Amino acid sequence: xxxxxxxxxxxxxxxxxxxxxxxxxxxxxxxxxxxxxxxxxxxxxxxxxxxxxxxxxxxxxxxxxxxxxxxxxxxxxxxxxxxxxxxxxxxxxxxxxxxxxxxxxxxxxxxxxxxxxxxxxxxxxxxxxxxxxxxxxxxxxxxxxxxxxxxxxxxxxxxxxxxxxxxxxxxxxxxxxxxxxxxxxxxxxxxxxxxxxxxxxxxxxxxxxxxxxxxxxxxxxxxxxxxxxxxxxxxxxxxxxxxxxxxxxxxxxxxxxxxxxxxxxxxxxxxxx
Length: 273
Hints:
This protein is α+β, with helices and mostly antiparallel strands. The protein has 2 domains: 4-101, Phosphorylase Kinase, domain 1, CATH 3.30.200; 108-271, CATH 1.10.1070.20. 31% of the residues lie in helices and 25% in strands. It has helices at residues 58-71, 113-120, 127-133, 137-149, 190-197, 213-216, 233-240, 249-271; strands at 4-10, 17-20, 28-36, 39-44, 48-49, 53-54, 80-88, 91-101, 108-112, 154-155, 161-165, 170-173, 205-206. The strands form 4 sheets. The protein has a 6-stranded mixed beta sheet, covered by helices on one side. The chain has a 3-stranded antiparallel beta sheet with strand order 9-11-12. Helix 1 crosses helix 7 (233-240) and helix 5 (190-197) packs parallel to helix 8. It is globular.
């Protein structure tokens, strides 16, 4: 199955529900799902605005993050990018959306990490310490690493899920998912792209860490800092393969510049610890 499907698909039968942008930015993220061949498929759009329509790059970012996570050998939910015709409130749109399959195993139930923490944490125990006690330390270290590299602004407590199976008596964290609010997103013109180029560090949501993605790297034990590959032209080609005609060359250049700059900062931090 192609990771990027450029041939126009007719998905006008999907029904879309609204989720408010968790950071408070104007607009909404619309989501949908269907059951197909015994599997549940989840769909989501980039930012939707009733005036401008479907705008931004959140769905593109899911594919970028997916590819980067694969390169770094970090478990995650795979995404597909689909060129589709959809319908919202009786109005038709042609857009790119992303799709993923249900990551739960048979018999598993899910609960947001923040809700699970509220139920199970010891008095005074911080979310990070709770996760380490649960045996999820390695997961968290990889998460903090990737979230810094991609500039993920939205790792709130519901963007990490706990999966439980009463029958198998197992409990685990779901593979990493939901990376839309990363890299350059919701930039609708060149002026907004240029502003994003500056790479200003902004506050982030991180349930298990601080509001600074860079400071969160200091939480990672020295022996758990991940060694990164050389980010050369070969990796660039892997990351942006098939993006031609979907995003501009300028967008890809800015994202690559941001990523490689953060890789360098990460490596400097590792070398100076």
